[in-house]
Write a structure and sequence with these properties.
With about 90 residues, this protein is α/β, with parallel strands linked by helices. The protein has five helices and three strands; from the N terminus they run αβαβααβα. It has one domain.
């Protein structure tokens, strides 16, 4: 992709980027990112399910890692559906 194509691209994802992916997203000049569930939500849901933290890296919001990115998310209308998917996967 050209720099202009990357800047005009939108990345859609179910979960918020981890810090490494957020940094890569910014470094390569990708455009907007839209996600359904935040890292904060996922962390809370897994704690509710008794899943111990497994990441050696603290979950940071995309805006904290790459403040210049256009970010849309989370999507409140889908919170319960995604939470239920995690619950079903873990049980």
């Amino acid at each position: 992709m050209t720099a202009a194509d990357r800047a005009g691209a939108t990345v859609f994802t179910s979960g918020e980027h981890c810090p490494m992916c957020a940094a890569a997203h910014a470094w390569v000049g990708l455009g907007r990112i839209a996600y359904v569930s935040s890292s904060e939500q996922l962390t809370a849901w897994l704690a509710e399910l008794g899943v111990p933290p497994s990441s050696p890296v603290r979950a940071l919001p995309i805006r904290d890692v790459a403040p210049g990115l256009t970010v849309q998310g989370p999507v409140p209308e889908l919170d319960e559906q995604v939470r239920e998917l995690h619950r079903r996967f873990r049980n």
